[in-house]
Design brief:
Blueprint: H1 19-26, H2 30-36, H3 40-43, H4 58-77, E1 82-86, H5 94-106, E2 112-116, H6 125-136, H7 150-161, H8 172-179, H9 183-195, E3 199-202, E4 205-208, H10 220-228, H11 233-245, H12 251-258, H13 262-274
Parallel strand pairs: 1-2
Antiparallel strand pairs: 3-4
Helix pairs in contact: 5-6, 7-8, 8-9, 9-10, 11-13
Length: 287
């Protein structure tokens, strides 16, 4: 069943490669990977059906997937050094953290740099324990990131909106006062301004309304509220129920709670995803 969080099309991981090249690279692992990424089967050339994997107990199945993923990265590392970036690891579940620890230990002598980011204010007990384990085994080096300066914020805006040096949105001072240089708060405030039409895309470039017409949210809470007001009432109701269900929620459960049919709920979920309130992820399934 679908679980909502973050995902990207599987083909993005193999951009620029032909189906034959993808099949050659994934051949030894395709049965195991198909459990994690069912869409993988659709990007591979037609091949004879493979017998299913023998069923295992959940703990054994987890270990099998850990080992397969690690062997795949090991194989990639024989061709070139690997940089693996995991953003927002504070949202990771316990099994994902366990696998990252497994990978870090197995890959200590290989050309792999594992870079993870997390917000220090959202370190729950399981993540704290994970970080402590890595420190104890001398597998990590921690870098504390300072808040953005005003000039950093200006560069961030230019990168987001692809602005040439000659153009300005004249927002850094306003956003810096609101966000104090926190990149996450900057992004949420920008989403709020775009949703409200204060910043808009026209004639192939980004522009804004006059400064005195911009409704700058006074806080992150106000920014999120401003964005929710742009949703339909039905989408807001789904969002409220999803928030009660937790950071991850099941589509079937949400359908029971809302009493929407599948197509109605899918339409509302697409509205929420377009507003970047929810994203869809694939659930790791056991045999």
């Amino acid at each position: 069943m679908p679980i909502y969080s973050s995902t990207r099309p599987v083909t993005n991981a193999f951009a620029g490669q032909t189906e034959t090249e993808i099949a050659t690279e994934l051949g030894p692992f395709v049965r195991e990977f198909a459990q994690l990424i069912p869409d993988l089967v659709h990007v591979l050339p037609d091949s004879p059906p493979m017998p299913p994997l023998p069923p295992l107990e959940p703990e054994q199945e987890k270990r099998r997937l850990f080992e397969v993923l690690t062997r795949w990265f090991t194989g990639l590392g024989t061709k070139q050094p690997i940089l693996l970036v995991i953003e927002d690891v504070h949202w990771s579940d316990d099994i994902s953290l366990e696998w990252l620890h497994y990978l870090a230990r197995r890959y200590a002598a290989h050309p792999l740099l594992l870079l993870v980011t997390y917000r220090s204010e959202e370190v729950r007990s399981s993540l704290s324990h994970w970080l402590t384990q890595l420190d104890r085994e001398r597998l990590t080096q921690e870098f504390l990131l300072a808040r953005l300066s005003r000039s950093d914020l200006d560069m961030m805006l230019r990168a987001i909106f692809a602005l040439p040096l000659s153009r300005q949105l004249e927002l850094p001072d306003l956003l810096y006062t609101l966000t104090e240089g926190n990149p996450f708060f900057v992004e949420e405030s920008l989403k709020s301004l775009i949703a409200a039409g204060g910043i808009f895309y026209e004639d192939g470039t980004w522009d804004r309304r006059p400064l005195d017409e911009l409704h700058i949210p006074r806080s992150l809470h106000d920014a999120l509220q401003q964005r929710t007001h742009e949703l339909s009432e039905s989408a807001r109701q789904v969002l409220r129920l999803a928030a009660i269900a937790g950071r991850r929620f099941d589509f079937a459960l949400l359908q029971q709670l809302t009493q929407h049919n599948e197509q109605q709920l899918l339409t509302l979920m697409k509205e929420l995803m377009a507003a970047q309130f929810v994203v869809e992820e694939k659930e790791m399934r056991n045999s």
